[in-house]
Every structure is written in C-alpha cells, then in structure tokens.
Amino acid sequence: MALTTALALLASAQVATAHFGIEYPTWRDNTLGSASTSNYSQWEYPCAGVPGDLGNVTDWPLDGGSLVLDLHHEWTYIFVNLGLGENVANFNYSLTDPFLNSTGNGTLCIPKVTLPANLPIQDGSLASIQVVTLGEKGQSLYNCADIRFRQNATVLSGDACKTSEGVSAAAIEIGGTKTAGSTVVGVNVGVLAIVAALTGLFVFGLSV
Ligand SMILES: [Cu+2]
Any transmembrane segments, and where (predicted)? Predict the structure, then answer.
C-alpha cells in the first residue's frame, strides 16, 4: 500500500490504542479517537477539556456506585476523585485511597466505589467523578463523568460489571501502610480486594 495509507493506518491504530475511556457512569463525552471533538485532550486537567454541562448524567447510589473503565495501556495507576455540585471543576474528594494499579488492556469493572464518610450529599445531589491514570513518567490522563446521587440507584451486577480476562487491579501499598490486595491478583479477587481495602480504610478512619 502507499506510504501515506500506511502512515494513516498507523496513526489511527495509535489513536485507537491510546489512553482510556469511562464506560460507566457515562462519561461527559467521548474523548477517544476519531469520535472525539478536536478540542478534547486527555492530557488536559481536570476533564480532558470536556465541559460539565453536556447533560450526560448517570444516577449513582448514595453510598457509592460502580465504575467501568476501558483501559488501553499495559498497566497504569488509577486515581478516582469526586467533586460535589453542578458543572464541577474541583475534585477534592479521593475515592481511591490507596490508589490502584491496573494491569492489562480491556474492561475493568469496580463493582462498588466506596465514598468517604459523612459526605454532604442527599437524594438528587449532583456531582462529577474524575478518573486520572498515571504512567511511569508521571504523565497523567483525565476523564470525567457526571452523576446524580439517587436513593433508588443501584450498583451494576452480572454482565453489566464484567472485567476482561487478563485485566486486574490492586490497591497500592504506600509507606508501609498495610492494605488488602497489595499484590496483583486474579480478576475477581483483585476487584474484591479493592473494595475490601477501601472498606478497611473506611473502618480505620472511623476508629482514629
Ligand atoms: Cu494513551
């Protein structure tokens, strides 16, 4: 084939394999590949240049909901943050303490992301979730999803929360802090370990 065609294919292949997507809750907008608006860039803090008023709002349980990511890198560190209010640009609540280390390309479903205690939210409260992935040089990618906390919202279950074969995530141990799941383990166990680690941290936080 012509060199230009080969280069175009190579370029589109790189776009297709680069970066990450949020599958659930629905992200503010598609920032991946050719479907993306040219103004979007996942390198851009805090939300890849996507405004928070596009109207893609997903109902999420008051005590935390599911998160499904479409990962395209061999591995990455993952941080999930929360900002309260409408059209959020300030994500000051960490939902991944400790943060996560994912391995493998594909879908990662975290069945339930636990929220900090005493979060000032109620039925109908608007918020946004920010997902940050971090590479070995500190390079960061950003995407956001807008949510509405709802009493009757539920977490994903069954087929809606499936992690791809070969994809796993583990909570990262920092400074000797002992957390569950600090080593990379199998898919389901790994995901459970995340929830366990977050729950453990929550309990620990209450006891001090
Ligand atoms: Cu990338």
Answer: 185-206
Q: Round to whole Å and give the CA distance between 8 and 176.
A: 48
**Ligand 1 centroid to 190 CA: how many Å?**
23
Domain assignment of residue 203, yes or no: no
- The pair phi, psi for residue 184, each rounded to 5°, is -70, 125
DSSP secondary structure string, 101-131? Answer: EEESSEEEEES-PPPPTT----TT-EEEEEE
pLDDT digits (tens, 9 = 90+) for 126-185: 999 999 999 999 999 999 999 999 999 999 999 999 999 999 999 997 765 444 443 333
What is the distance in A from the centroid of ligand 1 to the CA of 176? 30
C-alpha 18 – ligand 1 centre gap (Å): 3
Q: How many domains does the chain have?
A: 1
CATH code, 84:
2.70.50
pLDDT tens digits for range 32-58:
977 677 889 999 999 999 999 999 999
